[in-house]
Amino acid sequence: MGIQGMELCAVAVVILLFIAVLKQFGILEPISVEDGGDGDFELSAVRHQPEGLEQLQAQTKFTKKELQSLYRGFKTECPSGLVDEETFKLIYSQFFPQGDATTYAHFLFNAFDVDGNGAICFQDFVVGLSVLLRGTVHEKLNWAFNLYDINKDGYITKEEMLEIMKSIYDMMGRCTYPILKDNAPAEHVEMFFQKMDRNRDGVVTFEEFVETCQKDENIMSSMQIFENTI
């Protein structure tokens, strides 16, 4: 896999890898006619109960049928109704045996665990997925910015971006071609900041991030790929 341009394409990588894993685990399955009906969420076997169907419809851009289908997949893979970070990391490790997905999975887990309680519930899952699959470009970029802004102070620093880039390279492992130099992540961070840090103050604001991404055709195309995934 080539790495050229990853300092911007990482926005799409976040979404692609997450959705690929969900499909492999059967959580994102095509919705069939049988998925209809007026049945509820079947909560009896689940220890952590999600928010009501109507509330989740209001919070997301999924239909009732889609939410029911997503919940069945989520409940099958997560009978307790919660996914902790170690389980999340284990899932990612299975799909990237050639590398180390631990750090990347940690960052992605934190992006979904919006309340910071150490677990992803169904509500966290569908709200985040709704943004990635059905959100506006601005909403998707806001989600990606939040992933990169590790300490949530409203800025992306070089140190934060370097951690993200290293985690992606570590995860891809031997899949990268040509073979990466040791300083490749740092070089890509510098390229990222040359494009994003418009006022050269050493940090990237959300406004700078959005403005640059919206002018990049590859990123804008990637934002449209995922809209009809389920």
On the 0 to 100 scale, the average pLDDT is 77
Assembly category: single chain
Global structural class: mainly alpha
Whole-Å distance between the termini?
A: 27 Å
Radius of gyration over all CA atoms, rounded: 18 Å
Q: Which strands sit side by side, in order, in the main sheet?
A: 1-2
Which segments are poorly predicted (pLDDT under 50) over 5 or more consecutive residues?
1-12, 30-47
Give a written overview of the molecule.
This protein is mainly alpha-helical. It has helices spanning 6-24, 53-59, 64-77, 85-95, 102-112, 122-134, 137-148, 158-172, 184-196, 206-214, 217-224, and strands at 82-84, 119-121, 155-157, 203-205. It has a two-stranded antiparallel sheet. A two-stranded antiparallel sheet has the order 3-4. This is Calsenilin isoform X8.
